[in-house]
């Protein structure tokens, strides 16, 4: 399967969040080409500021595998992770993170220094591979539509 395939699944999760009035972020965790966990924002539903899509997907993945580490896992998330989620992803030792749209307001890049190439420093586990921009337009559009409706 391709990154685009799994990001489409994350977008389905984001749509679930959108449909219940949550900020539309969705995530899936893939292990050995199999989706083992899914999550979407549930901050309002659970009255819990930590109930981000990434956190919910990570917790489900840990439970599914009976492990606190995900070195062979890939997280697909529709929007750039925030600092809180970055911390959890760091400690999970996840093998790869793929996100769609950048988040200039709340994403981790806002809070990290740039390296010599003027790219944000890597804040995840040293072995974690990072990719971004997968279906970025679709991911960003869902966010834009959500906030446009509420203004």
Structure description:
By secondary structure, the chain is α/β, with parallel strands linked by helices. It has helices spanning 3-19, 43-46, 53-65, 83-92, 136-150; strands at residues 26-31, 34-40, 73-79, 96-101, 129-132. It starts with a helix and ends with a helix. The mean pLDDT is 94.
Bin the strand percentage: 15-25%
Oligomeric composition of the shown chains: single chain
Measured as a percent range, the helix fraction is 25-40%
The sequence of SSEs as H and E is HEEHHEHEEH
- Report the average pLDDT across residues: 94
Report the principal-axis shape. globular
The major sheet is characterized as: 5 strands, mixed
The Cα radius of gyration reads 14 Å
Tell how many strands the DSSP assignment holds: 5
Determine the structural class based on helices, strands and strand pairing: alpha/beta
The N- to C-terminal Cα distance equals 38 Å
List low-confidence stretches. Answer: none
Biggest sheet strand line-up: 2-1-3-4-5
The number of helical runs is 5
